[in-house]
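We were asked to recover a plausible sequence for a given structure. The inputs and outputs are reproduced exactly as logged, with field labels preserved.

PROBLEM: sequence recovery
POSITIONS: 505
GIVEN STRUCTURE:
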């Protein structure tokens, strides 16, 4: 029997094809029969262009039902789906194309000319368009194709997707995600979060990363649920739709913005069964304020690109503020010292994870892959955690110095390389600072190479077009030198302490 993830979804919905799958904010309704038909057409179209099983399909488009059908088509045909953040700039895209070597790229029409130029350099044969209304060359061509396609047999170890995550060296790494990784995680979450007949998911997340594409959509597909599909999070639109939903997934920023709305209360949330938070730490203040205002206790969980979800607070049982709960069924976690020896209960250490959810490694980086796994098969997450006497896991820090801003992972080194290359800059240090909306905001501390020193505005302006918007510092501070320890390492903790109040009211 095939381990194709699409076949697993197909098993669940094949008797419910008339059930609504997506309702857009414009009121369009797409049913599960549309999933079958459109994914078949898109799979057949791409195959007719010469895309073969195991080939990569890179996609940088707006959030639409058609974009989700394209993802499912790639699963169905055994293609490897490569979602790209819509904020990525040409220099970033050029790297992804050169590294992944896709056979086809699908892009927004406004980015088509740039993408065609980049694709030509990398011998990418096909560039198709998909716009914010679900139109473009991709769907135009698919309409001419027969709506039948036999789901391709794949083994669980074959790749379903590659998701790029920036590295501490500044070079993004392609995390190779298999059909088994995705299926095991989806099944565990569907059971652990108690999905039931009639659940309706309010979906306001992007669909170019794990949270929105895998966690949210896969649970809905397994449950044959309807998704209320918003292109982006807007508090008013969410509040309008919550009375019709039962489940919502969001980043902490979603919940702080909802709490800022005066009419967000228990009445609005009366039909809701579950609010889930992830992608960044949820402040205890938000946790308690949300419960007081709505009567609902947010369920916080923990995952990462390379592993999907690892831990979750319980559906039934105490959800503890400041923790990410227990390991999911089938997932092992441990906290160890730098020698990979277990630490005492409650003591912080390096968090490691093992299970069918853990990725296959980094694309074309065998040495990096080997470095990130222990001899007994645990993945080194790079997070610092502690496990208390009751088994609750708390993430207490990040060994790899990552900033999480609005739910997006930002790696300082990538930004520092761009800043250091600017005229008038001797060196820089990028840090995350507490921010009431984003959780953390990206900030840079710059040492000038001479006088006059570049201004904050000049540095920020110079980064536009080189980095995705969420990576560009919200503030730049210029100072004569960077604090260092006896070994010469920049003391970013000292910088964080100095500028800690920057975004506080």
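RECOVERED SEQUENCE:
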């Amino acid at each position: 029997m095939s381990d194709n993830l699409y076949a697993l979804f197909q098993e669940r919905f094949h008797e419910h094809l008339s059930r609504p799958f997506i309702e857009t904010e414009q009121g369009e309704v797409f049913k599960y029969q549309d999933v079958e038909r459109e994914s078949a057409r898109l799979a057949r179209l791409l195959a007719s262009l010469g895309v073969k099983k195991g080939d990569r399909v890179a996609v940088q488009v707006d959030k639409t039902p058609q974009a989700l059908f394209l993802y499912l088509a790639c699963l169905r045909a055994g293609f490897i789906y490569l979602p790209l953040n819509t904020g990525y700039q040409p220099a970033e895209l050029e790297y992804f194309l050169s590294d992944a070597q896709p056979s086809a790229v699908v892009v927004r029409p406004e980015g088509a000319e740039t993408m065609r130029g980049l694709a030509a350099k990398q011998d990418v044969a096909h560039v198709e368009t998909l716009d914010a209304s679900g139109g473009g060359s991709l769907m135009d061509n698919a309409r001419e194709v027969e709506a039948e396609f036999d789901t391709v047999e794949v083994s669980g170890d074959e790749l379903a997707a590659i998701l790029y995550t920036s590295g501490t060296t500044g070079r993004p790494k392609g995390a190779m995600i298999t059909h088994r990784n995705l299926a095991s995680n989806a099944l565990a979450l569907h059971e652990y979060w108690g999905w039931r007949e009639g659940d309706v998911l309010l979906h306001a997340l992007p669909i170019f990363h794990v949270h929105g594409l895998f966690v949210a959509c896969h649970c809905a597909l397994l449950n044959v649920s309807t998704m209320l599909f918003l292109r982006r999070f807007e508090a008013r639109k969410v509040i309008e739709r919550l009375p019709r939903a039962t489940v919502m997934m969001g980043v902490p920023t979603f919940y702080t913005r909802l709490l800022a709305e005066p009419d967000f209360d228990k009445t609005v949330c009366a039909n809701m069964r579950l609010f889930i938070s992830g992608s960044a730490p949820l402040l205890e203040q938000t946790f308690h304020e949300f419960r007081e205002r709505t009567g609902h206790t947010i369920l916080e969980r923990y995952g990462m690109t390379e592993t999907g979800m690892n831990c979750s607070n319980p559906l039934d049982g105490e959800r503890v503020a400041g923790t990410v709960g227990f390991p999911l069924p089938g997932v092992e976690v441990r906290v160890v010292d730098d020698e990979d020896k277990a630490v005492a209960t409650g003591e912080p250490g390096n968090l490691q994870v093992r299970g069918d959810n853990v990725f296959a490694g980094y694309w074309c980086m065998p040495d990096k892959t080997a470095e990130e796994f222990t001899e007994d098969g645990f993945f080194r997450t790079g997070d610092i955690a502690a496990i208390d006497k009751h088994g609750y896991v708390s993430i207490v820090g990040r060994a790899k110095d990552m900033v999480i801003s609005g739910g997006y992972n930002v790696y300082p080194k990538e930004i520092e390389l761009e800043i250091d290359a600017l005229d008038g800059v001797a060196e820089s240090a990028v840090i995350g600072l507490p921010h009431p909306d984003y959780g953390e905001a990206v900030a840079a501390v710059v040492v000038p190479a001479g006088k006059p020193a570049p201004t904050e505005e000049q540095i920020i302006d110079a980064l536009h077009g080189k980095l995705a918007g969420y990576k560009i510092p919200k503030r730049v501070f210029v100072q004569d030198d960077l604090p260092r320890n006896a070994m010469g390492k920049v003391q970013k903790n000292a910088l964080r302490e100095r500028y800690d109040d920057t975004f506080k009211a």
